[in-house]
Amino acid sequence: MSENASAETAARTAVGTKIAVVVREDLATWQKLNVTAFAVSGIAATAPHTIGEPYFDASDVRYLPMFGQPVLVFAASAAQLRKAHRRALERELSIAVYPEELFGTFNDEDNRAVVRKIATEDLSLAGLSVYGPRAHVDAALKGLSLHR
Known about the structure:
This protein is of the alpha+beta class. 40% of the residues lie in helices and 24% in strands. The chain has a single domain (16-45, 69-146), classed as Bit1.
C-alpha cells in the first residue's frame, strides 16, 4: 500500500472517533504531562489506525509518526474524573487509567501490579484517556472543560 493510500485509510478509520485525556486539575504540571503521555500511549498501542505516517523535514530527516487526529485534553476535579471514568466504562470505550499510585513506580511491571491491586471503585485517578465513537466520548466527558 502506498503512503498516500495508507494515510487515507487511517484518516477514514478515524472519522467519527475521538481521542481524549482527562487530568486531575490539582496535580503539579509535571504530573499532568506525565499522565497525558502515559495515558495516550495505550491508545497508540491498541488502535494503530489512529497513527498517521512518518514526518520528514526539508532536509529529508525522518521523524516518528504521531496521531492522525487531534487529542483533546480536559481538566477535572477528582469527583468529575470518577464520573467520567464511570461513564466511559458504561459506554465501553477504550480506556487507559493512571491511578495516583503510579507516581511512585518506575516500570511497567510495577505499574500493572499496582493497578491490579485496586478495585475499580477504589481507583484514585490522576487521569485517564479514552478512545471511541465521538458521540460516546462526548457523552462520557460531558460537562468537562478543556485544560487551559
